[in-house]
Specification:
Strand content: 5-15%
Order of helices and strands: HHHHEEE
Structural class: alpha+beta
Distance between the termini: 29 Å
Strand order of the largest sheet: 1-2-3
Largest sheet: 3 strands, antiparallel
Number of helices: 4
Radius of gyration: 16 Å
């Protein structure tokens, strides 16, 4: 499915909802981040506001992964702080404002806590 097609489907499913949350899933390196950006752009072209909140910021640090013997499987479900991500989604759903979110820094190969802030209806570009 193309981002423009999915954008139309999201708009239809959202109906009159003030906030509609969708999730993209796939294997590591499968293009989720790229597709999410395309979907955001496609929704913007339809006068909708969209925010990408990546789960990458919830990667466990390599020190933790090495200690657990999981470094070789980085990206597998057990190499993330999934409960932390769920808590973030609950905060978004509750319409909290100025929510600090972690961002995965690919140059440093680690997550940076509170590296971005999700403000009402937009994500800042502090990265």
């Amino acid at each position: 499915m193309q981002a423009t097609e999915l954008a139309l489907d999201v708009i239809a499913r959202a109906g009159q909802s003030k906030r509609y949350i969708i999730g993209l899933a796939g294997a590591p390196g499968s293009g989720k981040t790229t597709f999410a950006a395309e979907l955001c752009q496609a929704l913007g072209a339809k006068s909708e506001t969209a925010v990408v909140v990546p789960m990458d910021g919830f990667h466990f640090d390599d020190v933790v992964l090495n200690a657990r013997g999981h470094r070789a499987r980085k990206g597998a479900h057990y190499t993330f702080d999934a409960p932390g991500f769920v808590h973030l989604i609950k905060r978004i759903k509750a319409r909290e404002t100025d929510i600090a979110i972690p961002v995965f820094d690919r140059h440093m190969e680690l997550s940076r806590a509170a590296a971005d802030v999700m403000v009402p209806m937009r994500l800042s570009s502090i990265r």
